[in-house]
Amino acid sequence: MLKSLSISNYALIDQLNMQPSKGLSMITGETGAGKSIMLGAVGLLLGNRSDSKVLLHEDRKCVVEGVFDISEYGLKDFFEQEQLDYEESCIIRREISPNGKSRSFVNDTPVLLDSLKILGSKLMDVHSQHDTLQLGEGGYQLGLVDAFAQTSVELGIYQDRFRSFRAAKKNYEQLKQKAFEMQKEADFNQFQLDELSAMALVAGEQAELESTQEVLENAEEIKLKINEMLGLFQEEQFGVIQGMGQIQYGMQSLERLAQKFSELKERFQSVFIEVKDLTESLVDEESKVEIDFEKLEQIRDRLSKIYQLQKKHGVGTVEELMQIESELADKVFQFQNLDESLAEAEKELNSAKQSMEAAGRILTDKRKSCFSQFEKELQVLLAGLGMENARIQFEHKAIAPSPLGLDELEVLFSANKGGTLQGLKKVASGGEFSRLLFAIKYLMADKMALPTLIFDEIDTGISGEVALQMVRMMKEIATRHQVICITHLPQVAAKGELHYFVYKDNSAAKTVSKIKLLGSEERVEELAKMIAGANPSASALESAKELLAN
C-alpha cells in the first residue's frame, strides 16, 4: 500500500506531495494540468527509464519517492535475494541528475533498474486505456486463470518437478556431449595409457637408475682407483694400516710412561678405528662394482624411454608421469563405463519427465475446470459495465512443458451481438479492453493480494449507470485493496474517501503543476465545476452535494 508519494522537479511538477487513502482516492483536474505527468513520475518508481529531459529545472535533480507498507506482500525472500534490508515500511526513491544519470534506491540501498522493476510490479499496478496490452499476452491470461482457480499448490508442485526434469535433462545432455568428446580421444587415451603402463614406473627410480648408470659407465676406473687406495692402506711393510699399528704401539708406550699422553692415545685410537672402517668400506664397494655392459645398456635404454615420455608429456619427473598415467586410467575407465552412466541418466530423465507430466495434467485439469465459471462471471460483470452482448471464451491448447505448465491459453472475445470470437489483440477497442481488464481485476480482488491499483481515466467513453456501476465495483475492491482513480466524471469522483485536485499554477516564471487535498466545501465546488463548468450554478452545487451524500 502506498502511504505517501513525493515528486520534485519532474516535468511541470516543482514539488508535489500526497498521502492517499488506504481505500479509494480520487484525482481530478483540468485537462493538461498534470495528471498524466504524475503517472509518468510514478512510472519511475516502477523501473521505467528516463533522462534529463524530464527536469523542470535543468540545474537540479529530479527525485521521486514512495513510502509503501509491504507487510502483506510476502516479499522477505525477494529482499533477502537482493541483499536488501527488509522493513514493513519500505522507501523507494528514484533520482535523475542533470546529466541524465539515473539512480534507484530501496531503503537507501542502491539497486539495479531490473530489480526495481520486479519490486515495483508487486507494489503498484497502473491501469489505463493505453496500458492494457498485457491482457493480450498468453502468460498474463494464464496467471489470471491460476488466480481464479487457486492453483498455487498444483503449480508449485509442477514447477518443482519441472526444475527436476530440466536438471535431469541437462545432466543427460552433458553426458551425451561428454561421450561424444571422449569417443574422439578414447583410442588416443588408451594408447598413451598402454605406453605408460608398459613401463611399470616406480616412484624414485629415475634417480636410482641415473646413479647406477654413472657407476657402470666408470666401473673400470672406479675399481682401479679403489685398488690403488687399498694397496696404500694394506701393503704389508709400508701400508697405512701397518704404519698406524706401529704408531698405536708407540702411543701405548707413551701412556705407560706418562699419564698425560692418555688423551693423545685416545684421539689416535679413534682415527685408527675410522681408517680401518674406511678401508673395509672401500673393500666392500670394490666388490660391488661390476663391469656389466649388458646391464648398462638396459639402464640406458630405460632412462631413454623415461626421458622421451617426459618430453612428450611436458614433465620432468617419474612421479608426474605416474600422475598422468592415473588420470588417463580414470578417463579410460569413465569411457568404458559411460554407456552404463548414460543409461542411468536416461532412466532418471524419463522418470522425471513422467513425474512432471503427471503434475502438469493435474494442473491442467484444475485450470480447465474453472473456465466455464470464469467466463460466466466475466460476462455478467461486462453486462453491468455496458457491454451486454460481450462474450468471453477461454481457448486451451496443450504445449511442450514450460515453467508455467503444459498449457497455452488465449482469451477469445466478442463485444458485439453475433460477432465472431477472436483473440483480444484483434478485436477489443481501447475502452472495451479497459473495461474487460477492470472486470478481471474486480474478480481477482478477493482471490489474491493485489498491489496498489491506479485506474487512469478508465471511465472515458462511459456515463450514467455504467459509470456508477464501475465506481461501485471500485469501492468494493477498495475494501480489500488500495485504489487510486484518475477520473473526469463527477459521479465517480464523488465516491472517493479522499479527493485530490491537480491544477496549473502560473504565478511564477514557469507554469507548474500542483496538487491539493480538497476539503468538504472545496470538494463540492470541484464536483459542481465538473458538472456545469467553471461557473457552476446553484443547481450544479446541489447536484454535487447529492453525489457526495449518496
The value of Rg in angstroms is 47 Å
Q: Let me know the CATH homologous superfamily of the domain at 2-129 and 370-518.
A: P-loop containing nucleotide triphosphate hydrolases
What summary fits the major beta sheet? 6 strands, antiparallel
The overall pLDDT average reads: 88
Give the termini distance in whole angstroms.
27 Å
Q: Which spans of ≥5 residues are poorly predicted at pLDDT below 50?
A: none
Number of helices: 19
Overall spatial form: elongated
Which CATH architecture of the domain at 2-129 and 370-518 is right? 3-Layer(aba) Sandwich
| Category by helix and strand content | alpha/beta
Features:
57% helix; six-stranded antiparallel beta sheet; 19 helices; single chain; 15 strands; alpha/beta; 550 residues
